[in-house]
Amino acid sequence: MHVLLIAQCLLILLPFINRVDMTDQILTENIDGVLVVTFNRPEKKNAISNAMWAGICDIFRSASEDSSVVCALLCGAGDNFSSGVDLSGFSEEGADPQALFNAAALAIAEFDKPLVAAVQGASVGGGATVLFHADIVYAADTFRMRLPFASLGLAPEWGSSYMLQANIGAQRAAELFYTAEWVDAEKALSQGIVAQVLPAEELFDHAMAKAREIAQWPVNALREIKRSLRMHHLPAIEIAMQAEQEAMARQAGSPENMEAITAFMEKRTPNFRDL
After folding, report:
1. What is the pLDDT of residue 98?
2. By three-state DSSP, how is residue 197 classified?
3. All residues at 6 or more sequence positions from 179 whose CB lies less than 8 Å from its CB, including other chains
4. Residue 46 contacts residue 82 (beta carbons within 8 Å)
5. H or E element: which one contains 138?
6. Which one of 3.90.226.10, 3.90.180.10, 3.30.830.10, 3.30.460.80 gives the CATH number of domain 2-200+224-265?
7. Residue ranges of the domains in the chain?
8. What is the pLDDT of residue 224?
9. Which ranges of the chain have pLDDT less than 50?
10. Of 8, 1, 5, 135, whose CA–CA distance to 61 is shortest?
């Protein structure tokens, strides 16, 4: 099953291999059984391109099968974790951003080994919702998260409509989705979105030390623990992803979505009342 999914990821990636060197945009290194996966577009606040979505799918499907990988550590280069989807990807010829995005989301949701995340600066949209699938999230004191979907006239993504509720409770999740407000590191800690807040200069070393601590144990035992802790969420995640995709199809290009985009480009406050 995993081999088939890896092949599907590669087929999705093929149109982008000649256009974008994914190794420049996502860095991977296996350190003592910890696969460090780094978003590497700091000049774009690690906005995730089409090639990166396809790469995420391939990396996590392959890591699941790789016996030398015991756990993974996801992080971002520079001052920010990720500003989310790179909107310029929607204009790429021959691209199907939604298919790339969905494949990456499912690959991380189904990753059957421990996943640790180290986050700093901005985490927005897909750069935030990916964190809800991590087993442990460590944040720098510079961390800021936003779920901007309501403000863009859109719907949630990455199964976040289910996972955020599962992680922090229905009312807290609803507040963040409905208000699209910024969440700082301390609030993220108090609500259980992150496990610990650290000075920015200590973040990676601390997260890496914890990942190495995890990686000392037998991988199959860790797999069974993760299955016990999280795999019962998978049916609900898949249902949520399907509902989100249908909602996104209804909202993308809608009058409110176009007003949000136009207002952003014109650097003004959107007016949703006169639509």
Report:
1. 75
2. strand
3. 150
4. yes
5. strand 136-140
6. 3.90.226.10
7. 2-200+224-265
8. 97
9. 1-21
10. 5
